[in-house]
Every structure is written in structure tokens, then in C-alpha cells.
Amino acid sequence: MDKKVEIDSDSGFCFGVVTAIKKAEEELAETGSLYCLGDIVHNSDEVQRLSGKGLKIITHEELEQLKNVKVLLRAHGEPPSTYQMAKRNNIEIIDATCPVVLRLQQRIKKSFDVDEKQRPQIVIYGKKGHAEVNGLVGQTLGQAIVIENTDELDKVDFSRPIALYSQTTKSLTGFQEIIKEIGCRMHPGVKFESFDTICRRVSNRVEKLQRFAENHDLVLFVAGKKSSNGKVLYAHCHEVNPNTRLIANANEIDPEWIGAATSIGICGATSTPRWLMEEVKWKILSL
Ligand code: SF4
């Protein structure tokens, strides 16, 4: 029986990632070498492709040892301490922080940069240790409280004002649950403000992605193991189509999954390159 294999046209890199990769490729075409602080995108196959062109991924510890070089900052953004370190070491920054993340950093900084007596507790709904979250916490001299779910709300003092923000790639539903819970626990008359800072490049995809997933017997969701956006979007696909499999690349396809499926959908995260989804398609067609 003929198989129909379709790639979701809405899946793939968001503009923040496209811009970061474009900046890296421009520099690599000119000089053949560029440092990047952390994975440029949470996709090891794409990182490998760019490494082949001369991109070198470094850690913060390695950055401290470098001097007089160019370093690209990826779309997730960085805390102020990174810019200070670069300045000390005469490092030229190619800043690819996504404008959406940059705006969020500025908003958090504005909430924090008020007189200490007026300052609310800055609460960030996000993943502890995630690069974007580190960049956000850095705007508050490390004082922001990061929570991953409502169970962690005990860290917050409900008798004091709260300003709640979200990491750009978190789920809207999770954010709404947190707003509701904080609202219930706030002491009467204490100010609570919440700012929906979830990137619509991600949240708008959910509905379309679910429609796509529902329309196929089998869905292969392609995303790197480190992509938090990938995990969120995969969960949404799995919710409407339990026959959804999460794979990093074509090598992880188990031919047994394909079995009797006649309609196979391929989709991915905002960090999934199009070429990787194409490879998955060709692998299926060759089985
Ligand atoms: S998901 Fe949104 S905020 Fe994050 S890099 Fe992409 S466009 Fe920017």
C-alpha cells in the first residue's frame, strides 16, 4: 500500500534561530572561524553542520580564557555578566539575542530597577539553568525566583508584591495555572501582576500542530534532546495522537513503527532544521 508522508509546513526554525544562524554563516563565510557561547540551536545535527564550517561551541569557562576574538551570543540571550567578561577580555560580541528575549530582559530589568522598598518579587516561570532563564535572572542580580510548576510556589512570599514573567518557550496552560494559584494564595490587598511573555512563535504553533498530528496515523516529531520547546510541542502532539514518536534524526526511526501506517506526518520544534525533517521523509520512503 502507498504511504503518504507529509512534512508540516509550519514546523522548523523560528525567526530568532534563523537570524542567529544567518549571522554565524555570514561570519564563517568571511573568516572561516567563529566562537559561539553554548549550542547555537538545541539541535546537535545542525550544530555539527555549522561546526563543519568552522563554528566552535564554547562554555562560559572557556570564554573566560579567550582574548581578542569574536564570539556569537545565540538567540537565548545572556546575563550582563557575560558582556562584562567579554569587555574585560577584549572580545568582540556578535549579538544574536532574539529581539523577543531582549525585550523580556529589559522588562524584567525595569521591574527590578526600582527602589528596594517598592520592588516586587520577580518570579519567572521557566526551567532552572536554561540559558534564556539564566539571562533573565541576571537582570535581577540573581534575585529572581524561578519556578517550574505550582509545587514550587512555596518559595514565594504571598504577603509581598509579585511580578510574574514567563520564559518565552513555556506553555500557556502552565502559565495560566500558575497565575490562578498565585491569585488564590495572595494576601488581600497585595499587588500581583502577571506578564504573558510567552513567544507566540511557539504557542501559536500548538493548535496547527495538533491539527496536523490528528490527521496522520503516525507522527514523527523531530527535535534535539536538549530542546525544551521540542518537549513542549511533542507533548501537545502526543496528547491528540498517542502514536507520536520523538526522534532526534532519521537514524532513530524504528521500522516497526511504520508497519501498517498509511499516512505519516513529520513535524518538529522551533529548533529543528528543515533538512533534518527531509532526511526523515526520505528514510521512511526508502524502508
Ligand atoms: S522561540 Fe520566540 S523568543 Fe525564542 S528565539 Fe524563537 S522567536 Fe525568539
What does this structure look like?
With 287 residues, this protein is of the alpha/beta class. The protein folds into 3 domains: 96 residues, Cobalt-precorrin-4 Transmethylase, domain 1, CATH 3.40.1010.20; 84 residues, Rossmann fold; 95 residues, 4-hydroxy-3-methylbut-2-enyl diphosphate reductase, catalytic domain (Cobalt-precorrin-4 Transmethylase, domain 1), CATH 3.40.1010.20. It is 42% helix and 18% strand. It is built from 11 helices and 12 strands. The strands form 3 sheets. It has a 4-stranded parallel β-sheet with strand order 1-12-10-11, with helices on both faces. Helix 8 runs parallel beside helix 9. The relative contact order is 0.16. The mean pLDDT is 95. The structure holds iron/sulfur cluster (SF4). The site of iron/sulfur cluster (SF4) has 14 residues, from helix 1, helix 5 and helix 8. Iron/sulfur cluster (SF4) binds next to helix 1, helix 5 and helix 8.
CATH topology of the largest domain: Cobalt-precorrin-4 Transmethylase, domain 1
What do the pLDDT scores average to? 95
Sheet with most strands: strand arrangement: 1-12-10-11
Number of domains: 3
Number of separate helices: 11
Q: What quaternary form is this?
A: single chain
* C-alpha Rg (nearest Å): 21 Å
Using the alpha-carbon principal axes, give the shape.
Answer: flat
Question: Strand pairing plus helix content: what structural class?
Answer: alpha/beta
Summarize, please.
With 287 residues, the chain is of the alpha/beta class. 42% of the residues lie in helices and 18% in strands.
How would you summarize the topology of this molecule?
Blueprint: E1 4-7, H1 15-31, E2 34-37, H2 44-51, E3 55-58, H3 60-65, E4 70-73, H4 80-88, E5 92-95, H5 99-112, E6 121-125, H6 131-137, E7 145-147, E8 162-166, H7 172-185, E9 192-194, H8 200-214, E10 218-222, H9 228-240, E11 244-247, H10 255-258, E12 263-268, H11 274-286
Parallel strand pairs: 1-12, 2-3, 2-4, 4-5, 6-7, 6-8, 8-9, 10-11, 10-12
Helix pairs in contact: 8-9
The structure holds iron/sulfur cluster.
